[in-house]
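Table 4 source record.
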Amino acid sequence: MHGIPRPIVSDRDTKFLSHFWVTLWKKLGTKLKYSTTCHPQTDAQTEVTDRTLGALLKALIKSNSKAWDLILPHARFTYNKAPNKTTNLSPFKIVYGVEPLSPLDLVLRSMAENPSVEASKRVEEIKFLHE
């Protein structure tokens, strides 16, 4: 979805240690970073992300432990829409260049609330072209 990764952090499972995978990732220019049992974090960013996602999932799943699989898309959306403390940009904005629409963005607002001047001009322009 986002291209070939430069580094990959993984456990020491035999699938990731096999000659095929090591050769494949090497030819693609991807560096394999292996974690260990005692120290699963290989870089600080992974540790922070794991802690953040763990807290988010606990909060969302607390009362719905049997339906956790239905909550995962909501957790993914929430995480990808939240701005990063360092960049002040959400992961979605960084990857796609725009913020995703949330359900609140889809609620119709009355036209009495701050109508857009640009939108009004565009409507008039379209009407004129159709005439």
